[in-house]
Amino acid sequence: MFPLSHSVEPQSYSEASRDPDWIEAMNVEIKALELNNTWVLTDLPKHKSAIGYRWVYKVKHRSDSSIERYKAKLVAKGYTQVKGHDYLDTFSPVAKLTTVRLLLALAAINQWYLKHLDVSNAFLHVHLHGEVYMDIPQGMKVARPEQVCKLQRSLYGLKQASRQWYARLSSFLVSHGYKQCASDHSLFIRHGSNRIFVLLVYVDDIVLLGNELSKIQRITYLLDDTLRIKDFGDLRHFLGFEVARSSNGINLCQRKYALDILNDSSMLGSKPMSTPDYISKLHQHSGLLLSTEEAYSYRRLIGRLIYLTNARPDIPYAVQHLCQFVTNPTSNHKQAAFQILKYLKGTPGAGIFLFVASTIHLNGFSNSDWVGYIDTRRFVTGYVVYIGD
Description:
By secondary structure, this protein is α+β, with helices and mostly antiparallel strands. It has helices spanning about 15, 20-35, 95-110, 160-175, 215-225, 255-265, 290-310, 315-325, 330-345, and strands spanning about 40, 55-60, 65-75, 115-120, 125-135, 150-155, 180, 185-190, 195-200, 205-210, 230-235, 235-240, 240-245, 250-255, 350-355, 360-370, 380-385. The strands form 5 sheets. It has a 6-stranded antiparallel sheet with strand order 7-8-9-10-4-11, sandwiched between helices. Strands 12-13-14-15 form a 4-stranded antiparallel sheet. Strands 1-6-5 form a 3-stranded antiparallel sheet, with no helix packed on it. Helix 7 packs antiparallel against helix 8. The protein is globular, with a radius of gyration of 23 Å. Residues about 1-5 have low confidence and may be disordered.
């Protein structure tokens, strides 16, 4: 078994090219792209410009946390595309994290099956509309390096790729009896007498829930036959969340993500603290202004902490308060952020536990700190909603 916290992912091609595992992963990706006729090599027309690309590396894990494979993804630099010339519409829905938590709670209470699927090279199943050229990727052997790739199928990173893929997948599911949820368009539901099947989509990651295993296996077969998928078995890792199931319920946490934040902030060796909150009230002018580089690091840290709040109801108040100072952060704000990190050092695996022994009903709680914000004298309101006991 290979611990999640020890999975190292390269940040550049030069770094990955020194590891034979990642070289093999890039060769597999290029071969898959070529077999799907993703591009044709051609000379670049004079009136056109080629967009760039980058390699993105990800370690995929099995349900027991061991390494399943090294995945290298070739991503186009779609931000250089011109609207109206290279693409038109771009919007594509993805699963809401509130929906993810809700479905996991229902799965725990109703003891539904919980499966995880991944669509292999999802965007390659969609033909590209428009004339788009891309530089030849590093690691690909060609006879004429001065040529470019004329894209014939969607590629990750292109502005229109997600929309076209979502249209293909949603039409497939609707044709097989699934109904799209009005409150979350990435959620598809099919139910009958005493049977229910739920499918949640986040780009090329799919979570399947249901109370009848044979029907789950049936839709899994249909997806594999049409789109080629990888079945990861029981859901264990999804969008940075770690899902651990037992007879008592489902534990949802972001342990690896929290450890990554601590490691990137050089706080793994810090002394743990018992609370994420700060000692005194902060305001806009408390402390000295940070340098440009330090301010960027502060904003990046706060952004990562915001995502961590999805499974950590113990830190949202402290994090949202620090969010108010991202425009002009000071040394005091940075110190308060470090206190949150010290708290995380002592509780990296803390999260939400969804009990089996619960009844389905809503409980809501809220609280307000009247005129407690020093700079504007506005009040801060917080709320939490539980489904079940």
